[in-house]
Amino acid sequence: LAPGTVFYIQPGDRHLFDDLKDLNLVNVLYSKFDNFQFIKNFDQLLPELTAPFWQITPKASSKLLKMMQTFQKINNIPNFSPYDQCEKELLFLNIMKTLCQCRYQNEETQSNSEKIQNLLIYLHSTSHEIIDWEQLADKFKLSDRTLHRQFLASVGITPQKYLIYLRLVKAQGLLKSSQMSITEIAFNVGFNDSNHFSSVFKKKEGISPSEFREGA
User: Mind listing the pLDDT tens digit for each residue in 49-59?
Assistant: First the structure.
């Protein structure tokens, strides 16, 4: 996670936080079926389901925070009127429009720090795939050396260790919530050898995957 990261979480999605530290979240909860009277069909403003993560600029984050504070004030108005409902829906629509307009789009104008933040988001959705770091550096308009140096400075560990971390976190979720075998989970999260997966998991967690599942 990084300042300005936006997640689109749907009903049924599983998510967890491994290390909260100074994490500060702002949630916008809505039901498009029940809670809207004036606006409809805003799905095109939402992130694509295949990549439900956005990154927005610090300036946009500040602007959105003020809008959400206003949204909360409207939400707390007693004797809520149709006018208040209209005001609330307009503000929600403006929040969605601002998110779409302010997310990072032009990689050529991004700083290296912004590129690393987008790289983190990319890794979250592709951690189960085989990663070629040189190709990935080229994709994000970074040299391989700069990618590794900036990543270590921003995250505190190497990209390779972070990838393993992501795979293990996803494995923990599957161990707790699915009936998949250890081998199936290993391949599902990106390991090509179940024995290697079990060895890495035990080194990180202190217990084997099967012991972790039994204690879940």
Answer: 555 667 777 77
Which tokens is 11 given? 């009903």
As a three-state string, the secondary structure of the chain is CCCCEEECCCCCCCCCCCCCCCCCCCCCCCCCCCCCCCCCCCHHHCCCCCCCEEEECHHHHHHHHHHHHHHHHHHCCCCCCHHHHHHHHHHHHHHHHHHHHHECCCHHHCCHHHHHHHHHHHHHHHCCCCCCHHHHHHHCCCCHHHHHHHHHHHHCCCHHHHHHHHHHHHHHHHHHHCCCCHHHHHHHHCCCCHHHHHHHHHHHHCCCHHHHHHHC
Q: Retrieve residue 114's tokens.
A: 């912004």
Q: How confident is the model at residue 175 (pLDDT cuts 50, 70, 90)?
A: very high
Each residue of 76-98: pLDDT tens digit? 888 888 888 898 889 888 888 88
Residue 201 has pLDDT above 70, yes or no: yes
* pTM assigned to the model: 0.61
Fill in the amino acid letter for 36.
F
